[in-house]
Design a protein that fits this description.
The structure holds two protein chains of two kinds. Chain A is an alpha+beta fold. Chain A is built from seven helices and 20 strands. In chain A, the strands form three sheets. Chain A has a seven-stranded mixed sheet. In chain A, strands 17-16-20-14-15-19-18 form a seven-stranded antiparallel sheet. Chain A has a five-stranded mixed barrel with strand order 1-2-3-6-5. In chain A, a hairpin with a 5-residue loop joins β14 and β15. The two termini of chain A are 39 Å apart. Chain B is of the alpha+beta class. Chain B folds into five domains: 4-99, no CATH class; 104-179 and 336-423, no CATH class; 180-333, Jelly Rolls (Sandwich); 490-706, no CATH class; 709-764. In chain B, α6 crosses α11. The chains are: A alpha+beta, B alpha+beta.
Chain lengths: 388, 766
């Protein structure tokens, strides 16, 4: 698997090497790396973008960010192994409230999925970043900054001026400088709609004191300012929200199963065979421990949206685990866990690079019917972003 | 009652010494411990009450209960010897009892013979295996036609009554029974895709002869594995016909199959595999109609789906596929030969008593397979007349009379002897029936009846003439299928279904193919009149594509059962290396060398080993931290117990010679051991025959067996058991040996051996 994980990087280096192997060439090759099914992209591939989540299609794991008052929506699809973080915990697109300011790492479309997110030519003329419409990572501010060791030091409150005078929270960054982040003192809007968390309680904004080290979540504010939706005054308060989000995500995955993709396939000539699966990353570790306990998990095939077909448990086969391998330092998107299964009956989707979902020791529940792909027409409809 | 001396004198010296030394001290006239005496126990083993007592003695010695712990103990060899001797005597007694013949004997037909006889008598197919039809026949060492076991209970009579009515209804139906042709198409512009285990259903309302025409394509898997199209009966859970079908999607072919089919639900089935779906349902079905204009390759790109995979990334089928366009079913067909069987059955004038009597007599003579006197027909005539007086329609009454002839004991039994005349030999009609039920599993045909009527069948040359005629008749197929199945106990194949987790390759088509190999091999030996030694040692076999894969024989695979020469590296040759034989003694999880040995002893050498002592500890599973060891090693450790060793030393080598074959008959160098640590151990197939000859593998063992004098003697004993429908006794042995002796010069060529047997005095004896 290590070979597979690093082959994306090799590809980038090969492309760069066609020209002179300069830092600029490498950066450009990384930025324009085209992800391929079955291969995780190299670190730092694509570009960083941020903006408010203004469209959410949680069924197909798609959405749109809006950078500013006048910018067009930046539509995107999550890569199958794309990860979402909210309140510092693993999350799904459905967990992010519309309006939340998000940071993301965006790549060119997955090979073969170029038409998933339609792009108007005139938009490209304005901003070529629209080409980068497949996200490998999406994070709210609390996750984005806290996971990189950053926080905000409160400098005090200020009364803003201009045509719409508003109360401002003055902060300065504490911690390392981050690409695409705010790396200098800044004023955030704050008002009575801001949730201020201390320990496990909501408190008034009067509890925010100069010198506090805080985390914030943001949204659009007038004149493209950033307004606070949440302020966490201490680690305990953020940990409480993190745990709630963690549990919400555990509940989601336990009913939808753990996603991964097929690295290798060996067909027998009697309908059975063997498949090797790498589980995607970005999950709570307990899920991997749970799946490890199941030696014969049920395996459903799935689309790149991670959607499964009909009653996913019934339309699955039980794999008989013959190998469990964990790689160290897996690439972004991968859990590093590779499992080989013997399969009594191969499903159509058990092909190299295709997505599967593995059921752990979890109670089976029927999914909402609009999450299934129930027919070829359903699949056709799901293969392209449908604008609201 | 024999005296002490006379009772023990019946035993040879070693046994006498054993009984005197270890038993009589407590069980003689003075002590009579447990109120049981051996000193005056009769040695008349033909008496079942006496045999029961000796059986108790054997059991106690074998279980080491006797002599008691505080008494002087016999050695393992002594125990083995006395148990062997007692077993032999008990079995000889049982054989004599089972072979006893009164002045008149009735041997009930097996249900298979019943079905064949009905067909040959009336051209009617009666499904003896249908629910509520005839009972399954009991077996003795594989044989299901032993008269002593085929008793007639009231439940049998009830079933014969129902069967007779159904048969006559089919032969003389009220309703129109004419041939119809149904044409079922997959759909306009559509073809039906059948992946492994899937079928396209159709029903046959009436049993009978049908002609099936099926148009379709058969695509081999990417490895070359060929699809097998089977005509699968859903209730009987077995196929009644089938063919390996290879035809491209562009050039479908029309297959025509004709045969006798019971009524019921059928499937045109892609038979190579059946598997349970993981959630317990039958499987993930595709069973879909596909566009006739597109190839199956289009299924890959149509859209991803949760259904099973049909083609690999290169567009090649991942399993053998059938694609069916239409099925045409024509039937039930009455051939001219079938109609001829019913000729003369129905009187043309229902008021002509003379003609009615003539028709009844004609039918009864054929059904009862002997001349019938007028007095025997009178009750049937009287019945018809009485019923007609009550205004019952003639047709209905007459049919009841015919049915009554079929529920006569003279129909469903082979009757030999006569109440007044204690004959030693069969009369001509009895001999005709014995010969036809031996070779055709059915009644004699008109030619054979005619020879019997002329009183010529007891003339050796006439008998031989008939034998020669009968073995080239298509009905000889019944013997070539039925005898090897019973002799080799092939009903045990698949009795313990191999665990699908351990043997995922095992499937119903493989199981069916295994049995087909052995019956076809026997048929080839017979047709080519090959030496009997080739039954156990040869460089050829008869197999189909499924078995070729199982044996690791490379492509091109044969599309039907084909005789092929076996290269030495295939490691096979002879019945003993057939997957059927190697797997019939397995228990579903592993091979059982001791059972294999017991089978070789019983089926090939005609010696059934004594039963194991009670409470034998089973082989323990190998625990996680113990090194992996072979079953053989475990058995050898087991057999160090002196009580086990004496018997096992005789049985085990016969099975251990085949250690290179696993539970489903695949060749192996190492034994796959569940549990334990370390590498799977190498197998060891060497051993020493009970007569001291050593062998190092199955090849050497087979050669020793092929040269063994007992091979032909044991075979003829099995053949006689099948033909004479009774167990052979010591009284028959000299005649059996004489038959064997007469064919020794030509290497006991199979057809010659059987011919000699038919011409022997033993064959015509009651």
């Amino acid at each position: 698997m290590r070979l597979l994980a690093h082959s994306g990087l090799l590809l980038v280096l090969c492309l760069a090497a066609r020209n002179v192997l300069t830092a600029e060439n490498i950066r450009e090759a990384l930025q324009n790396h085209v992800p391929k099914s079955g291969f995780f992209p190299p670190a730092d591939a694509g570009i960083h973008l941020d903006g408010d989540l203004v469209v959410s299609d949680p069924i197909n794991r798609r959405g749109a960010l809006r950078k500013s008052q006048h910018s067009k929506r930046h539509y995107f699809a999550m890569l199958p192994y794309g990860m979402v973080w909210h309140h510092g915990a693993p999350a799904d697109v459905r967990d992010i409230p519309v309006g939340t300011h998000m940071h993301g790492r965006f790549l060119l479309p997955l090979e073969g999925e170029e038409n998933t997110i339609p792009i108007a030519k005139e938009d490209l003329k304005v901003n070529s970043d629209y080409r980068y419409n497949h996200a490998i990572l999406l994070e709210d501010d609390a996750s984005f900054y806290s996971r990189r060791g950053r926080s905000w030091k409160v400098l005090g409150f200020e009364n803003g001026g201009g045509p719409a005078p508003r109360l401002k929270l003055s902060v300065e960054p504490v911690g390392p400088e981050i690409e695409g982040a705010i790396n200098k003192p800044v004023l955030f809007d704050i008002d009575e709609s801001t949730r201020v968390w201390r320990k496990r309680q909501l408190v008034g904004k009067d509890q925010i004191k100069t010198g506090h080290n805080i985390q914030v979540n943001l949204t659009w504010g007038p004149f493209d300012s950033l307004a606070t939706t949440d302020v966490w005054l201490d680690e305990e308060s953020l940990a409480a929200c993190r745990e709630i989000q963690r549990q919400r995500h555990l509940r989601l995955i336990r009913s939808r199963f753990l996603p991964g993709w097929v690295d290798a396939v060996k067909n027998y000539d009697t309908g059975g065979g063997e498949i090797t699966v790498t589980l995607f990353g970005g999950m709570d570790p307990i899920l991997y421990k749970e799946i490890e306990k199941v030696k014969t998990p049920k395996i459903s095939d799935a689309a790149t949206t991670l959607r499964t077909w009909s009653y996913h448990q019934e339309y699955s086969v039980r794999g008989n685990r013959i190998k469990w391998k964990v790689a160290e330092n897996p690439p972004l998107g991968s859990s590093g866990i590779q499992i080989q299964f013997k399969i009594p009956q191969m499903l159509e989707g058990f092909r190299q690079g295709r997505i599967v979902r593995l059921k752990g020791p979890w109670t089976y529940v029927l999914l909402p019917a609009d999450e299934w792909i129930a027919s070829p027409k359903d699949f056709e409809l799901s293969s392209k972003l449908r604008l609201p | 009652m024999p005296t002490m001396a006379s009772a023990l004198e019946e035993f040879e010296k070693t046994s006498q010494d054993f009984l005197k030394k270890y038993c009589l001290r407590c069980h003689d006239s003075s002590k009579q411990k447990g109120k049981f005496r051996i000193d005056n126990l009769s040695s008349d083993f033909n008496n079942h009450l006496i045999a029961e007592k000796w059986n108790e003695v054997r059991f106690r010695i074998n279980a080491s209960e006797m002599p008691p712990e505080d008494e002087i103990q016999p050695t393992a060899e002594e125990i083995g010897n006395i148990v062997d001797k007692l077993t032999q005597k008990i079995r000889e007694g049982a054989a004599v009892r089972m072979a006893q013949r009164a002045s008149m004997e009735h041997y009930r037909l097996s249900r298979q013979e019943y079905a064949h006889t009905i067909y040959d008598l009336l051209g009617v197919v009666y499904d003896v295996e249908a629910p509520g039809a005839l009972n399954e026949d009991p077996r003795w060492r594989g044989f299901n036609r032993i008269g002593a076991l085929l008793s007639v209970a009231p439940s049998h009579l009830e079933r014969y009554f129902v069967a007779a009515e159904a048969v006559i209804e089919l032969a003389l139906p009220d309703a129109d029974f004419s041939t119809k042709t149904n044409h079922n198409i997959a759909g306009n512009g559509k073809r039906r895709l059948l992946q492994l285990g899937e079928g396209w259903g159709f029903d046959l309302k009436h049993p009978g002869r049908y002609r099936l025409r099926i148009r379709g394509s058969g695509l081999s898997a990417f490895t070359g594995r060929i699809p097998h199209m089977s005509i699968w009966h859903k209730h009987h859970k077995r196929s009644f016909d089938g063919v390996d079908l290879v035809a491209s999607e562009d050039e479908p072919v029309t297959i025509e199959l004709e045969g006798l089919f019971p009524a019921g639900g059928y499937e045109i089935r892609n038979h190579a595999r059946t598997q349970k779906h993981a959630n317990g349902a039958y499987k993930l079905f595709r069973n879909e109609l596909i566009d006739a204009t597109n190839s199956v390759l289009s299924l890959k790109d149509a859209h991803p789906s949760p259904r099973t995979k049909i083609v690999d990334d290169k567009g090649r089928p991942v399993m053998p596929l059938l694609i069916i366009d239409w099925i045409e079913i024509e039937g039930p067909i009455s051939t001219a030969a079938d109609l001829a069987k019913r000729k003369g059955l129905m009187p043309s004038n229902e008021n002509d008593t003379f003609e009615i009597k003539k028709c009844l007599k004609y039918f009864a003579e054929r059904a009862w397979r002997r001349p019938v006197i007028d007095e025997e027909i009178e009750p049937y005539l009287n019945y018809i007349n009485a019923e007609r007086e009550t205004d019952e329609p003639f047709r209905s009454v007459y049919r009841s009379a015919l049915a009554s002839i079929l529920i006569s004991r003279s129909f469903f039994n082979l009757v030999e002897g006569s109440p007044k005349d204690k004959r030693l030999h069969l009369n001509d009609f009895e001999l005709a029936s014995r010969l036809s039920f031996f070779l055709w599993s059915s009644m004699p045909d008109e030619q054979l009846f005619s020879v019997a009527r002329n009183g010529e069948l007891n003339i050796s040359s006439k008998l031989e003439e008939e034998f020669n005629r009968m073995i080239v008749d298509p009905k000889i197929e019944r013997f070539l299928d039925s005898f090897p199945r019973q002799w080799l106990q092939l009903h045990r194949v698949g009795m313990f279904q191999p665990d699908p987790k351990l043997y995922p390759e095992y499937d119903p088509w493989l199981e069916e193919s295994m049995v087909k190999e052995s019956t076809a091999y026997f048929a080839e030996l017979f047709r080519k009149n090959l030496p009997l030694r080739e039954a156990v040692d040869s460089n050829w076999t008869v197999l189909n594509s499924r078995l070729a894969i199982h044996y690791g024989i490379s492509m091109p695979y044969p599309k039907q059962l084909t005789r092929i020469k076996l290269d030495p590296e295939i490691n096979r040759g002879g019945l003993l290396t057939h997957a059927s034989i190697l797997s019939l003694s397995s228990d579903g999880t592993r091979h059982r060398p001791v059972h294999r040995g017991a089978w070789v002893s019983e089926a090939i050498l005609s010696h059934t080993p004594p039963p194991p002592p009670p409470n034998v500890a089973p082989l323990e599973p190998i625990l996680g931290d113990k090194p992996k060891i072979t079953i053989r090693s475990q058995i050898e450790a087991h057999a160090t117990n002196p009580n086990c060793a004496s018997c096992h030393s005789k049985i085990d080598p016969l099975g251990l010679a085949f250690e290179n074959f696993d539970a489903i008959g695949r060749w192996r160098e190492t034994e796959k051991v569940q549990g334990g640590v370390g590498k799977d151990p190498l197998v060891n197939a060497s051993g020493i025959m009970p007569d001291g000859q050593a062998f190092s593998n199955s090849f050497e063992f087979k050669k020793l067996l092929a040269d063994h004098d007992l091979l032909a003697e044991a075979f003829i004993e099995h053949l006689a058991t099948y033909a004479l429908r009774r167990i052979m006794t010591v009284d028959d042995m000299s005649q059996l040996r004489s038959i064997v002796g007469s064919t020794k010069r030509d290497d006991h060529r199979l057809a010659n051996l059987i011919r000699k047997f038919v011409l022997s005095d033993l064959f015509s004896k009651r």
